[in-house]
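HOLO CASE FILE
Compound: adenosine-5'-triphosphate
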Amino acid sequence: MSALYRLKGLEYSYLWNGKQVPVLKGIDLELEKGCFTCIVGPSGTGKTTLLNLLGLIDTPSNGHLEFAGEDVTHLPESEKENVRLHKVGFIFQSFYLIPTLTVLENTSYFLPSLGYNHANAQKVAMETLDLLGLADHAKKKPLELSGGQRQRVAIARAIAKKPAVVLADEPTANLDSVTAEKTINAFKELQKSENTSFIFSTHDSHLVSFAKSVYRMKDGMIDNTKNQEAK
Ligand SMILES: Nc1ncnc2c1ncn2[C@@H]1O[C@H](COP(=O)(O)OP(=O)(O)OP(=O)(O)O)[C@@H](O)[C@H]1O
Ligand SMILES: [Mg+2]
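Model generated. C-alpha cells follow.
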C-alpha cells in the first residue's frame, strides 16, 4: 500500500482555561493514496481536530506525522504553508469564505499563487463552479447565498487547485440528496482523473458508502476500522 499519511501515537491537546485538555489520545493510522477515506464518530470525538493535524493547520502535541513520505510533525510554519498551498485542499466545517469577494473570486483565490494567469484562473474557477451547479451564482458574494451554496463554494475553492489531497469536514452536511450526489460525483471525477485522495469527516452514511476505508473515532481514539468495496 502506498501510504499518503502515516500517524504514530498522534496526540493533540487544546489549552483551555489554562489547562491542557487531551482530545486526540494516541492515534495510529496509515491512510491510503488515491481513494476516499471516511472518519466517522460522535460529535466532539476529535474528527475536526484530526483533520486540522492532517492539513498541517495545527501541530501534534505528541507522536509522529508523515505526509507523502515526509516527516511533517514539526515542520516550520513557512514550509507547512507551502505544503498546504500546493498539496492540500481544505473544506472547513464553517467554510471560511471571504465575504468581500465574489463566488468566482473565492473559488479562484489560490490559483494565482500556484502560477495561473488571471484568464486561466477565471476559466478553471468557472469550470469548477459549473461542475458543482453554481455557475449562475459566480458574481454573488457569500452572504447572498444559501448555506448549501456557501458549502459548495468552499468545495469549489478546495478542488479548483487540484490538490494531492482534499480534507473535507462534513462536506455534505448542508446539502440535499441531489446536490450531495452531484458534489460526490465531482469528487469522484477528480479522484479518477488526478488520483486525488479524499479524507472526509462525516455523519453522512451515503458518503461513507463511497469510501474504501472507514475509521470510527470514539473519545479521541480510533475505535474501529472497516475496509469495504467502495461504490
Ligand atoms: N479551540 C478549542 N479549545 C478547547 N477545546 C476544543 C477546541 N476545539 C475543539 N475542542 C474540543 O475538542 C473536542 C473535539 O472537537 P472536534 O471539533 O474535533 O470534534 P468533532 O468530532 O469534529 O465533532 P463534530 O462531529 O461535532 O464536528 C471537543 O470536546 C471540543 O469541545
Ligand atoms: Mg467536526
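CASE NOTES: The longest strand covers residues 3-16. The beta strands are 3-16, 19-32, 36-40, 62-67, 70-71, 88-91, 165-169, 197-201, 213-218, 221-227.
CLOSED: yes
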